[in-house]
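Sample A.
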Amino acid sequence: MIIDFENITYLRLLLGVEGIGPQKILNLLTKFDNLKSILDSPIVRLMQVEGISNKLAYRIHNCRKSLGDSTEILKIEIDRLEKLNAKIITYWDSDYPEILKKIFYPPLIIYVLGNLNFRDNTSVSVVGTRQPSTYGKNMAEFFSRELVNKNLTIISGLARGIDSIAHETALKSGGRTIAVIGSGIDIIYPPENKKLFEKIKENGAVISEFELGTKPDAQNFPRRNRIISGMSLGTLVIETRLTGGAMQTAAYALDQNREIFAVPGNINIKQSEGPNSLIQRGEAKLVMCADDILQELNLRPEKSSSAYKPIPNFELNLFEGKILNSLSSEPQYIDELAAATALNTSDCLINLLTLEFKGLVKQMPGKMFIRL
């Protein structure tokens, strides 16, 4: 089916009918040739479709009265989309994500800033708490970097915390990332993510099923979360409470028959409740590196299974080399590092500073260091 302006108007009309959702529209289209014929159909014929009650048939039949207003609203919206350099994609368009069509409740309309491409067919969503621990932040960086290095696209929800770290790390690592948001694509939330938002649309895409101008209300986020999991081969949960939105995304992934992965955490902190619970219930696979995820998804790992990016052509002195070999993705205290490398603390700090300038090491709070 080719969707044009007229058909988008009909689709919007139907989606605006109380009690009608994507699945009912898809059911109707198994009995009718197109969207227009649904709106033109007598009530009796509409009621012959499974799930369409007498009351719902009346609503569908009567919604055509709003066709004129809906047409004008859509014209205005398309003008605004053109100014944003964004586009509207329907379920029947060739650039609609194939993997998203396979979920039970697929969005029939999505708004896109940026571009979707073939690389997004192998995507993993990375989700978690808005208030991660230092360990959670490190794990979000570690896994996002590794997954991008394996040529996977990172999908997340642009929220504070784990989501933002996943997006930022994917971009810094030269990869693609997709943000699925719970507002119109003309509204950036949280506002402090404006720069990140702009970078994502240049190196991936920002997606929403909500019309322009829609504010980020709480009721929108479950719908957003089903798209995050629905566009992904699997969902990786990094730190969340049992009641966190990331657990909702994991539940959608389970319903959609997608894989769930979880990073185990400290049992003494609230942020670990979610992933540890998923592992304990057997709903998520415990993962320690990106290859664990690729293996479960039956994707061929890259030739290199190193946990780190290849070291650039930097000339490292003997001490820098010793320090780098002693570091890992786990934060290490300066005193422990000095002891492990047989250097005094002052010399160790000087060489760490040089390694940090070279982008090979990162300093964490409390004079702790990790390897990048």
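Sample B.
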Amino acid sequence: MPVSISIDVDELGRLRNCILSQNLKRAQVTNENELLRIKDGQIDMVVYKSGKLVHNGSPASQEIVDFILTRGRTFDYLIGSDEVGKGEWYGPLVVIAAALKPDDIVKFRKIGVRDSKLLSRSEISKLATEIIASGILYKKIILMPEVYNERYLEFKKEGKSLNDLLAWAHATAIKDLMAAISVESKKIKIIIDKFDMEKTDLRLRRANVQTRPNIEVTQSSKGDTELPVSTASILAKYLFEERVDQLNEKFHVDLRNDSPENISKEKLPFVSKTHFKNISKLLT
């Protein structure tokens, strides 16, 4: 059965080095979308210009894939942190911090973990189930609408913004996760999908995360392309959708399709984020 993964420019370079070092036989490409073909004994693979690599799943092909996906094992853990729900007027805010070992990176690449924006809801559900079943360490902060609204008001009274709330949630999830890891003897890289560097740095320092010499923290505007962040994002979206289903059932609404105007004022504070303008105007 054909197996498909996405590879980046560095991994393509590693594949080309592998072709040269092992003197693998290349075949003629069959259409303009193909970048290269390899057909040598049990090895049968095609690389497309889109960055997708498709191979036949043989042990020999899999060995090459393992080689090109294996990066320098500089860190014992790579922690990705991401949130879901800040832009939706309904449902909870979900923040996930997930810790991956180098072997997990390779494993998750093979099963199709990638930027969650490229995945359907069914694909997210399938991947999240596999990620959870793998036994990786992760921590979650889930603020259901009622709690989210209370916490948002508390921050607002202190002169703080939504980004302060997000920074608190990310730092808390990361701190809780690191409490489950023996961090003193581990080298760890933390990757956060960037939204407010200054506020996040402050919260991480308060949580005694940013100050440790064995910990590297990166806030990236393209964090969702980093596999640890993609993993956290998939889990966060899965849990967000799960909680939306629970709210729909409990309050007899259809939050994905209903408009706020069609939901009673009594229910809105329990299913929506009340500081959103389209919600607040209905509650005044």
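B remarks: The beta strands are 3-6, 26-27, 34-40, 43-48, 52-55, 77-84, 93-100, 137-143, 188-193, 215-220. The first strand starts at residue 3 and ends at 6.
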